[in-house]
Protein 1
Amino acid sequence: MHKFAFAFIAATVIASASAAAAQDYPVAYGDLDLGTVEGAATFDTRVRQTAGRACRGGTLIANTQCRLRFRDEALRQLPTARRDDYARARANRVLAMVPTIYG
């Protein structure tokens, strides 16, 4: 994979098994504090948007699998310290608090 001087990662996606050449899709992260919930969420949004551009034209299942592989590759390419920050921020997020009534 390529490393960019301006804190980009470039996830390479092959949309289908018959693709002649892979293409890089850069995702910027250098301006984000991945150790915060907000920074990690912004990174997730950027990855999701870029994966959406990279993974289209196939079946719903193929596109979904492509987007999941894209996300995994984007996270794999983060420097270890940034990936650790991201993991800590994601572990501390509150997904939803819904009151339940029993009775």
Note: The mean pLDDT is 78.
Protein 2
Amino acid sequence: MADTQQVDAKAERTVARLARRISAFSKAHGGAEGQVAYIGERGARIVLVGEDGGWGDVVAPSYAIAEQAVERAGITRHEAFDGEFAAKVTTGPYEWKRMAGIQVGG
């Protein structure tokens, strides 16, 4: 029983830490929305898009922890990174240069 409580306490700390990071991103970008994507053994990726078009992500050790962190942070969660949600992302010269480099083998 003690092991279960210890695991739960660790998961709770992880949820709290991720929620603080999501909230800080949201505050810095005038609000935020997110989407949780399963990335296999590594866990889940929380993609964040700010109201100003800024974007970022955080990785959680599990999908369940990612869902709890998003819920605790109080941001809108999308089921998919669809066209309407993706259109809110603002890309700059760095991203365009990086995408072009990937296409030409750089």
Note: The mean pLDDT is 88.
